[in-house]
Amino acid sequence: MSEQSAIDAAVKRLALALDALDAAVERRREADRSEEALANQVQALGVDRSKLAAALDGETSRSRKLEATNREIAERLDAAIADIQSVLDTHQK
């Protein structure tokens, strides 16, 4: 092999190695962009989770208040029904 062909072969190998390096760098950049996008999505999901947890806490509190109000109304209705029944029983005698 002549000296010129050995240099040409080395230059060709170097060019191939540089192309492979460029491709690897681009894959790494793409992976970094994907990782950053995933990190942003995870952060957004965390914010959404916090908002949903706060909303759930509010709705749970509201539900408990409604249940208490419902019990109070039921007790008042029972008392009113008992009063009406008592009046009716008194007038039927």
From TrEMBL:
InterPro entries in the cross-refs: DUF4164
Name of the protein described by the UniProt record: DUF4164 family protein
Lineage of the organism: Bacteria, Pseudomonadati, Pseudomonadota, Alphaproteobacteria, Hyphomicrobiales
Pfam families named in the record: DUF4164
